């Protein structure tokens, strides 16, 4: 069959597959599910899911903070009426279960046969303002939860339906903002926090940033391709191939029913910069052959023969860099690694099917300056190669010093994360969350399950006293600013049945008094606040609370101290406890980050080792290849330590991805060296020829990669920003090592033949 007919058939098949991919891409949806970042398969996750079925989710709430106007306190009648209007508005919303606000809290009192809920606030009775404020600030559980300590702000705690999705969450936020606008509340006097806010902001920004990154990447890559090839087809063909790979990769995601989240949103940008590599190597070699006078068909044949093996190996190593992320227990990272790795392999397929077909069908390009003796790049690379040889001792010395300093600084890197660590410190959403940290109990939830032992139930006096002891430790030592438990319920009921006085807010003095209260507790067990803290049969309870977002390092230390306290100070024959909750699960990710990163890097290094051993059957060559690719990784780890950048979920992917991409050019270099050595036994001449042959593609692909990742610096997410910065730096250091250390290491250590190194080098330098 004629080659042109094969090319037309290939384009038809690829077009049909692209149409199918486009169909599945149309099914993709953006998603930010907080639960996806829990460690999948972890026993604590299974336990927490059972816990939420018993007591509800610990992050199904929305906080609305309101600041009193300048010169007023929260007890001003106008302000209280505004709060009450917002409370009624929130209560009417479809997905709101309950609202706790200054106008809904009440002091329960039982007198005779009557039950009364006495409001804490009487805005229409100015004479009672001082009395109301005094009672509120003496009542446990109100200050720091509903009222700020300085009496300048209040919070509405809006309990939402479980696992509220983005559309209804956005609708609730829009309705509340509309109500605030109607009441003429200035934007600087109200603040939102909670899952619905984070979910809304993250998804909206993901959509916007994906469009921005893709646009910037297209402009940047187009410019670099034009600068390199100076022909329309040298720009258009790589873009067609890489856009096809992105379409196919996203199509596979859509077919698998996976949504675009904070991590997979990076796939198109990653592919746009990574997927261009093979096309640049192919076109560079193709143009070189044409420049040396070969026909179009011969040039294409030589190009595919020489580039196919190296490109296949580099695609394998790059995809492995992403596939190793599948060792992560965090689902978004797992999906990102899986589908980006698949997309890299698809880019390789398109580079050796779509690109050759297009080159075959296009007319033979007219090169601007055809040369029989080489190209202008040969002169630049030749001078660079001679400089590297002359300065070899300086290169080795500087490399050793930089490496030693980097290793020292890398030891300062810490694994630490917080609930909103992907948002910059000056982000409006993070500032809103900070408002609740400063004025109220905070936004970090705390959960401890309570299980009575020895045939007791949660309302046993001994169990209650042990629970009260734990509460005291949490508030004194742990840093819990707000706490609620079955102890809160019993104290509240006791107070209600003893006239409502604050002095009566305490546990019963003895079992006889508790026995009298237990019957009365049944009157309240159907109330939401009771069912949220204790099971109806009293077989288990919940100690819940909120605190400042102290970060995972501090949280780990606090949790270790709490576990030690529970072991030594709480009688396990009376009460058993288990730490759980969404924050605890997020903190557990840190325990897996180091292991996942080491596992991923080990797999990468092992695969590269096997590839080099298969190519050269030499342990020396394996070490020679690994050094210039591991050095940039260590340097960037040192940069992280110097800049104080913590290792967290988003930045944990940097090293495996960077190594997988950086080794790509090394694979191309050594595969070309292997081909060259087949007809050039002199090592020096083979290295020099390979340097001139592969140098242009190495520089161009590295510039595209560094430039492409630099577009991520415009992200409003800190994690994405650091992914772009640190991977870009790794690749930048990588190309420097590729052009300096790699040829020197090969000449000095491969096969260890000084005669093949020194004499030709002397001839060249002479």
From TrEMBL:
Gene Ontology cellular component annotations, sorted alphabetically: plasma membrane
Protein name: MMPL family transporter
Subcellular location: Cell membrane
Residue intervals of the SSD domain: 239-361
Listed PANTHER family: MEMBRANE PROTEIN MJ1562-RELATED, MEMBRANE PROTEIN YDFJ
Signal peptide start and end residues: none
Topology relative to the membrane: Multi-pass membrane protein
Pfam families for this protein: MMPL
Gene3D superfamilies linked: Multidrug efflux transporter AcrB transmembrane domain (1.20.1640.10)
Transmembrane feature ranges: 210-229, 236-260, 266-287, 308-330, 336-362, 394-415, 593-616, 623-643, 649-670, 691-715, 721-750
Keywords in alphabetical order: Cell membrane, Membrane, Transmembrane, Transmembrane helix
